Amino acid sequence: MSKNVAVILSGGAGSRLWPVSRVSEPKQFQVFTDSTSLLSQTVIRADRLPEIDEILIVCSNAHENLVKKHTARHTNKPVSYLLEPIARNTAAALTCAAVHLQTCYPQEDVCMVVLPSDHHMQQSNEFHEAIANALKGARAGYLITFGVAASKPETGFGYLEMGEALKVPTIHRVKNFIEKPNFERAQQMLEAGGFSWNSGMFVMRCTQFLEEMERFEPRISHACSASVAAETRRGDFITLAIEPLLDCPNTSVDYAVFERSEAVAMVSLNTQWTDLGSWAAVADLHDQHHAPNNSKSIVVSVNANQNFVQANKTVAIVGVNDLVVIDTPDALLISHRDETQSVREVVASLNLQQPEITISYPRVRRPWGTYESVGQGPKHQIKHIVVEPGGRLSLQSHEHRSEHWVVVAGEATITVGEHTDNYITGQHVYIQKQQKHRLENLTQEPVTIVEVQIGHYLGEDDIKRFDDIYGRS
User: Fold this and answer.
1) Going by C-beta distance under 8 Å and a sequence separation of 6 or more, which residues neighbour residue 442?
2) Which is nearest to 266 in space by CA: 195, 166, 142, 171?
3) In sequence order, what are the residues at sequence separation of 6 or more whose Cβ sits closer than 8 angstroms to the Cβ of residue 420?
4) Among 48, 176, 265, 376, which has the highest number of CB atoms less than 10 A from its own CB?
């Protein structure tokens, strides 16, 4: 028997899309083009493929509580999550996925349809046909990659050079892999024809892929096999063991296998596609669709052209062209469109000077909702807290601060000491130091709280948990 599994890669950091993409919520969880995140769009894409039996999402264990929110409601297919304790690039991620699937289905011939979660693609018949043809090629003994028809001399993508046609219809050998070229080389390839963008999507049988991985990168093969052998499961979440991965090489699957194997072939994909790996790519996508800038307020331009602005305040641009302006509550990026690939260098510099601004937002996500500090002094702090329906904070106390909660939206269930009551908009409660308390939302609407903390120490580590449904007590 055979089985086809969509393996969605959702482990990237997306540093070139800072300050929107951060370690705590990288680009795959962000909305750039419509009302859904890049990860959600990828799940929808997999869900609409009739050949796919189930979906496996490979992601960081740090995103366990985030990833399900972006996936579960977008598909009716079975979904499971393979959690990486440390990032070791795409070769290890796909090897772990292949070993895991073989372990789950030892009697079946499993094909992986690998879809990165940072692509924007038109849902089209051409895409469906390309996947169907690639599955035929994989069953015929090839490791399939996809070449996207190049529409311009793009320097941010790798390229594939098409080789001879094979007996399987629409399948060709890959004559050559070209790393990200300079503009002149990219222009030459576009004019010559026979070259396409390397999409980073793959279709391959697990058994064949693992044989090639063992042949070319035995250290990766052995580390991933050991990690999967010691994996732990909790519902839909499977956590890989960390110890075997500590010495696993950090290598891309292209370098590990696809650029070295004689079994590699390609399918041409003639549909609208882009890898949203930089702000220039995001800006170009908006230009193509004549979409307005992703701003929440007014953008005024005077003698200024081809500028892309994403902001939360009124922005005036005068006498400049080809800029990208990205505004967030705690950071501002201004870059020439041709230089947005260098944002990664900005992040590297900030990691040495101000690492917290690359890791998380002022708005911090928790399993139960979000909180954001909106004001602070020497002995007080004001927070804006949102508890999602069904959310429940831990039963806790604080040694160094008291808290005053004011309900500003919704109906909150609040425990203070031995008493539990419901509080509606406009009502408030005072919590003394060392007093046990809990906040929860038993309704179907979000609850919003303004919290005023008073004390000589206001750190997040001043929490003593007595009971917690998220396992943090």
Assistant:
1) 390, 413
2) 171
3) 413, 414
4) 265
Question: In terms of domains, do 256 and 140 share one?
Answer: yes
Partners of 97 in the β-ladder:
none
Task: Encode pLDDT of 55-82 as tens digits.
Answer: 999 999 999 888 998 998 899 999 999 9
DSSP string, 96-149: HHHHHHHHH-TTSEEEEEEEETTEEE---HHHHHHHHHHHHHHHTT-EEEEEEE
Look up residue 374 and give its two tokens.
């909106």
Domain final residue, candidates 227, 252, 275: 275
Indicate whether 259 and 312 sit together in one domain: no
Nearest to 408 by CA among 436, 427, 422, 390: 427
- Rg, the chain, Cα only: 25
Mean pLDDT of the chain: 92
Residue 423 lies in a domain: yes
pLDDT of residue 167: 85
Give the count of domains, the chain: 3
Q: pTM of the entire structure?
A: 0.86
Print the domain residue range for 390: 364-467
Q: Three-state DSSP class for 357?
A: helix
CATH at 180 = 3.90.550.10
Residue 473 falls inside a structural domain: no
What six digits make up the tokens of 81? 């999550």
Same domain as 318, residue 377 = no
Give me the sign of the Cα torsion angle 144, 172, 274, 255.
Answer: positive
Strand partners, 273: 121
pLDDT 10s digits, 291-321: 545 556 788 999 999 999 999 899 999 999 9
**CA separation, residue 416 to residues 245, 276, 434 (Å):** 45, 48, 11
